Amino acid sequence: MLGKCGIISEEESQKIINGLKDILNDLESGKLDFDMNAEDIHMFIEGELTKRIGDAGKRLHTARSRNDQVALDLRLCMRDEVQEIIELLKELIAELIKKAEDNYETIMPGYTHLQRAQPITLAHYFMAYVEMFKRDILRLQDASKRMNMNPLGSCALAGTTYNIDRYMTSELLGFDGPCLNSLDGVSDRDYAFEITAALSIIMTHLSRISEEFVLWSSHEFRFIELDDAFSTGSSIMPQKKNPDITELIRGKSGRVYGDLMALLTMMKSLPLAYDKDMQEDKEAIFDAVNTVKMCLFIFIPMLNTTTFLKDNMLKAAKKGFINATDAADYLVKKGMPFRTAYKIIGSIVAYAIDNDKTLDSMSIDEYKHFSELFDKDIYEYIDLKKAVNDRTVVGGPAPATVKKHVDLIKEFLKES
Predict the structure, then answer these.
(1) What residue ranges do the domains of the chain occupy?
(2) 113 is catalytic
């Protein structure tokens, strides 16, 4: 750009470009090491370039500042890192879809307040997390769009008197355009907040499913068995199989939240434009990125190797009266107001508990004691499979509905 605009000669421009390429090759091959005595990375590169090509190297820093270079480099770095995380999220979604496709008919209890509530399928459960991780992708993509503006040319804070072409550098670097205020160009870190906030939400989702895996792997639930590669034994209790990976992921969520809080606190009182405090942004956002990537990288194969104990899920679904709402709906469809039906079924559940029965083990005479509207078809209506299959409303757990959801997500993965 400097050469094209006539700020330096075309010959000097080409010398600088070739020299920088040579330095990059030597760094990557290990032929050249960073000089840790240099003031910083920028001065090291400029000094090395000047050694190699002479005075032309001293023109490298024309119409720029370390302030806009740092702002530029962080955006370029985060653009690549965000895309890597998006690809990992897509892999995780694809694995969740595979699990869903294997479990359209696997009945399990759905929970509220950690109490058995209503029957769902394991496929429906997996697709709930698919929606969460899909939103995570959309959040990162959205943040990336706002981040994709070029601060180069803002210089220290007030731009430059040189007639540079900021649109050319934006195009060459893949940005949508230049930052339109030089003060903001060097001091904006909103994108760092947004990305780290999105990463924090990803960790919330990973922590939630990890917590469920911790519960489900316990003998109290026995819904899953983790592969030995992703669990450990106790040093003194030979019967133990601890879900260490899920616990570590759950714990790492707090670390990423801390990174977000560090960024917000660091920036909250800074006057325009650049302040040295802002170098703290690197440690926080790099840590958040690395932590999320590590957690996704390990969670995907852990999910792939987890055994889901379907019989235990079904046994749990048959207890806890999770078909009580369906029994109430049965009375409503016979003409009874819902609130009246609700109270009657509540009384029936209390009776069943006192007599150690389930709704499907009660006799029709016992049902009729509570309401003459009950008939033998009540047993068909409260069948768990029917209760799930009848929930065909959009977003419901019926296998046909979940299959449509899976198809929509597959299209999303292709297009995103």
Answers:
(1) 10-59, 66-87+130-308, 319-415
(2) yes
pLDDT, residue 51, reads 96
42 has catalytic annotation = no
Residue 13 CB coordination number (10 Å):
19
Spatial separation of the C-alpha atoms in residues 343 and 333, rounded to whole Å: 16
**Does CATH place domain 66-87+130-308 in 1.20.200.10?**
yes
pLDDT recorded at residue 234: 60
In sequence order, what are the beta bridge partners of 292? none
Q: Among 3, 5, 28, which Cα is nearest to 16's?
A: 3
The active-site residue, picked from 9, 218, 234, 347, is 234
Contacts of residue 97, defined as CB under 8 A and 6 or more positions apart, other chains included, come to 126, 130, 406, 409, 410
Residue in 203, 385, 361, 204 with CA at minimum distance from that of residue 294: 203
- What's the whole-model pTM score? 0.92
CA distances from 411 to 90, 94, 211, 405 (A): 12, 11, 29, 10
Q: Which residues of the chain have pLDDT under 70?
A: 233-240
Write the DSSP assignment of 16-69 as a string of letters.
HHHHHHHHHHHHHHTSS---TTSSSHHHHHHHHHHHHHGGGGGGTTTT--HHHH
Digit-coded pLDDT (tens) for 169-194: 999 999 999 999 999 999 999 999 99
pLDDT of residue 163: 96
Burial class (CB in 10 A: 0-12, 13-18, 19+), 264: middle
The fold of 319-415 is Ribonucleotide Reductase Protein R1; domain 1 (1.10.40)
Same fold, 66-87+130-308 and 319-415: no
Q: Which of 29, 113, 235, 269 is catalytic?
A: 113
Question: What pLDDT score does 320 carry?
Answer: 82
Q: What is the pLDDT of residue 381?
A: 87
Using an 8 Å Cβ cutoff, are 88 and 286 in contact?
Answer: no
Contacts of 183 (CB under 8 A, 6+ apart): 154, 157, 158, 272, 273
Cα 62-63-68 angle, rounded to 5 deg: 115
Q: Is 258 exposed, middle or buried (0-12, 13-18, 19+ CB in 10 A)?
A: middle
Using DSSP's 3-state secondary structure scheme, residue 284 falls into helix
Q: Check residue 235 and give its pLDDT.
A: 56
pLDDT of 289: 98
